[in-house]
Amino acid sequence: MGERLEGRQVSLWVATAGGTGYPCLDSDLEVDVAVVGGGIAGLTAALALKRAGHTVAVLEAARIGTGVTGHTTGKVTSLHRLVYTELADLHGPDVAGRYGQANQAAIEHIARVVAEEGIDCNFRRVSNYTYAESDDALTRVRDEAALAARLGLPSVFTSDTPLPFAVRGAVRFDGQAQLHAVKYLQGLARAVDGGGSHVLEDSRVTSVRDGVPAVVETGRGTVRAREVIIATNVPVGDGGLFAERCYLHRSYIVACLAPAAPLDGTFISVDEPMRSILAIDVDGSRYVLTGGEGHRAAETADAAVRYRRLAVFSRERLGTRETSFRWSTQDTMPVDGLPYAGTLTPTAGHVHVITGLRKWGLTNGTAAALVLADTLTGRHNPWAAVFDTNRIPATGQAVGKSGHPDQSQPDQPTVAGLRPGEGAVVEIDGEMTAVYAGPAGELLAASAICTHLGCTVAFNADDSTWDCPCHGSRFAADGAVIQGPAAVNLAPRPAPR
């Protein structure tokens, strides 16, 4: 099991937001728009559509804010490391500029919603920095700053940052922000619920059917709607379409207590290993969040080692104390670098999707939601084409080569040596079986075949989950779905003896 880690295995945002208590869907319902997913994209779209006069129903599989958005860094910014150089190289400067405009508009939209709805979510205006410590990174930072300025973004190059250690230089975007992600989502949910619209928790969607009306099925009720928006990390019911356009990336965050006032800004490094930094006061305590150590979800990694590296960086470079919280998250990364917001397929009439938010979901998710809200209310959106789900990939983009792992099986372990809290995938009677040892050593068993598209799951020792390395589905130790696109639990198997 290894050395015990510091800090609670839970997101700071989830731990300090308090709970919600919306009902589950337990009967049939009709609304104008059904939204699958209660994260930043789904709730933003729902509120925009409600404000435009539509009735909406948001269906969340668990509780508001406990999904991907609840495990964010909390940054609200259009400066996404070196994104403008990347997008200009792939798609040209016009597309890069419109991406930036969409994210700038998202910042201002969030600021307005916080003010108009009176959401207490630690919203604070800050500058955001992409910083360099090496000569090579400095050159790239200078180029990014100049390009972003030419694109009309609030970009300057600076050699002066509020960081407590020396850097060679940085891109600085002023007028950015940070917030408590879960408190913001809870505020959105309060604004959506009521007046003929609904927020429904513990309502996992099992299928979506296009048509007039479109139909959203759960285990306990059906929603019929003129339009459906699927706003989950990996789309439910897409048949693996977006798994060919995106890959899953896992990253790690530690929140450490800080003795000094919060840093005046948010930060991300160009040099590797990448480090993301944000400081915030929550409930009278000061924390510094340090993120990084990312890898493709298909790759195995020792989470304990990664958390310790982040904690050491936070102590040695940022002067923090003990780790209070630690968590990991999986984000959907588009192969061609641009998020998706549009119809599920070119022939879909009433089913729309948001995905591929490339780790910057607070702004990309907001921008994507506004694209679909405009689309469904007949308004022109200036960046809809950039986010188009049916766009033609840029030249040289291997959309069909999104990095699925080799599913060949290595030498299989046995269950005889499993200690409490450990799990392993083993072959039993010719079937790949996920076996977990509970706290008292009792064995729980389920099929190791993901119910989404048939990949073999792997045990995540840090979270005690079965994770699909292909498309990001996650299952509890007993096989219950905790994150899609899978909608069905792992099939139970007899416990081995």
Q: Could you characterize what this model shows?
A:
This protein has 497 residues and is α+β, with helices and mostly antiparallel strands. It has a domain at 405-497: 3-layer Sandwich (Rieske Iron-sulfur Protein). The protein contains 8 helices and 25 strands. The strands form 4 sheets. Strands 1, 4, 5, 6, 7, 12, 13, 14, 15 and 16 form a 10-stranded mixed sheet that branches. Strands 2, 3, 8, 9, 10, 11, 17 and 18 form an 8-stranded mixed sheet that branches. The chain has a 4-stranded antiparallel sheet with strand order 22-23-24-25, with no helix packed on it. A hairpin with a 5-residue loop joins strand 24 (474-475) and strand 25 (481-483). The radius of gyration is 22 Å and the shape is globular.
Descriptive tags:
eight-stranded mixed beta sheet; 22% helix; Rieske Iron-sulfur Protein; ten-stranded mixed beta sheet; alpha+beta; 497 residues; 8 helices
Any chance you could write out the topology, listing elements then pairs?
Layout: E1 8-9, H1 12-15, E2 29-36, H2 40-51, E3 56-59, E4 75-76, H3 83-91, H4 93-117, E5 124-132, H5 135-150, E6 155-158, E7 169-178, H6 181-192, E8 198-200, E9 205-209, E10 214-218, E11 222-230, E12 246-257, E13 266-269, E14 275-282, E15 285-296, H7 303-318, E16 323-334, E17 340-343, E18 351-355, H8 361-376, E19 423-428, E20 431-437, E21 443-447, E22 458-460, E23 465-467, E24 474-475, E25 481-483
Parallel strand pairs: 1-16, 2-3, 2-11, 3-8, 5-13, 11-18
Antiparallel strand pairs: 4-7, 5-7, 6-7, 9-10, 10-11, 12-15, 12-16, 13-14, 14-15, 17-18, 19-20, 20-21, 22-23, 23-24, 24-25
